[in-house]
Queue: 3 jobs
Job 1
Amino acid sequence: MFSYQYWLRRLLLWLIDEQDQAVQQTANEDEDEEDSIRHHTNRRRKHKEEELKIDGDLTKEQIAEKFELLKEAFDELKDGMTRLEFEVEHLTDEKTEREEVMKLQRAKLVKLIELTKVLQHGKEGDKMIIMRQQEIINTMAREQDVKSGNVLIKESN
């Protein structure tokens, strides 16, 4: 039979839908610890179960004592449930926080992608401007060479 911690982990893994190696490794270590703890608590529970049985030939004081033991056991169960509820809430909050961080990171990534596209477009535009300027310079140089060539031809005559 599995302990409540095992089922809590299973529930939490289902809630966060993650089964990474770290969680599995921690779960395996915790299961070893749980086995040793379970062995001791099972002995205590068996002892308590024997103490809690009420026979018809018990005195009023013995019944009151057993009732107190029942109240203590109930309080322990309530405390355990409260701890479990707190752990579930805590893990749910962590999951929500991680989801928010992921959303922010996605938005940041989208902005960076857009910026990269704008920079690439600007770079292409700059290349086009440089090519046009080079063409103008080449055209002006040819015109200058032609004018210089005409001047040289006129001077040689």
Note: DSSP finds three helices and no strands in the chain.
Job 2
Amino acid sequence: LLAFAREQGHSPDLVLHNSAVAAASCGASSGNWALAFTLLRNLQGAVVQPDQVTYTAACTACQRAAAAAQALRVLQVLPRQKIHACAIMHSTVVMACARATFWQEGAALLGRLNRGMGTRQAFLG
């Protein structure tokens, strides 16, 4: 769909990019985290920049594929992008850790969230 839009002379907007990343998370029963990350990487240097929805969709692809290391990496990138991770993103990363038997990393993330979130609003972003 992204390629088709470009072929037709259109510049895909953020909604279309987010839809493509989200579609990668729905592919097969295990998601396609590699495709989601390729789509995310293609946004680097583009006029359209990824947002919280884009990164959450990439984390969802990781969760479905049990790609915990990649999901945890997304959380590391967010501060540089000046994007706040919301409750859904954190939950998705914890579930990716659980599926990949990275239970220690998931528990550590939950501990950091418990210590770092003073209010419900801060957690929800």
Note: The chain has a mean pLDDT of 86.
Job 3
Amino acid sequence: VEPDTITYSSLISACLAAGEWQHGLRLLMKMRLEGRTPNSATYNPLLNSLWEADQVNSHVCEVNSRVYEVNSHVYEANSHVYEVNNSHVYEANAHVYEVKSHVYEVKSHVYEANSHVYEVMGGPAAEAASGARRGKFACV
């Protein structure tokens, strides 16, 4: 038979009645690790015993220390995510700029080639004359 929340709460209360608040805390941790949810019947006697044993402040400090540690890990993880995102965005923008530069270069070569073709054909007058000889309209 697996112990449930009521069983753990009863065991914790028995430990506290015997003055074993440390063992009661260990049972609370074990209870939570096993997926049992503590309730007010679990916490109230434990808090009263800790208060009477003048242990509340040290445990609050310990909890705050663990919260600070977790927060520092979260901050560090967020920093890495930010760093990775920014470097990839910068890298992607650099590639876009590079591609745009190549497109601009290709367009300038196309423009240059069109200018040469236009020049070889004699400009608008040659176009109009060749179109008129063939009976077509020239586009300028």
Note: The chain has a mean pLDDT of 80.
